[in-house]
Every structure is written in structure tokens, then in C-alpha cells.
Amino acid sequence: MTIFIVAASVVMLAGLVGTLALSGRGDEQYTSATKGNLTRLVLIYAGLAIVLAAGIGIYVAL
Predict the structure, then answer these.
(1) pLDDT at residue 30 above 80?
(2) In the chain, where does DSSP find H-type helix?
(3) Which UniProt keywords are given for this protein, alphabetically ordered (predicted)?
(4) CB 37 within 8 A of CB 19
């Protein structure tokens, strides 16, 4: 079970790092236009992490 938790964490972290790395590229107008999108993506990742952690916790408890 621990391997699945570690694997899920690695995948989520890789997605977050990839999103942040790609958001820094591009011209000035693109960067300023995507600032709101980047904020929403980070919030989605944070919410997903909470939901997944809760789901794994419930699964382990049962």
C-alpha cells in the first residue's frame, strides 16, 4: 500500500512541477494572461491532493 501512496505523490508532484515549468515560458503577454489560469491549476492540484489523501485514508481505515 505504501508504494501506491508514494507513486500517487510522485505523479502529482511531477504534474505540478511540469505545470509550473511550462508556465514560465512564452512571451510577456502570454505570461500575464495565464497568471489566473496558473493560480486555478495550483488550487486544483491542492484540492486533488486533499481528496486523494482523504480517499487513501478511508481506504486504509476500512
Answers:
(1) no
(2) 2-23, 28-33, 35-61
(3) Membrane, Transmembrane, Transmembrane helix
(4) no
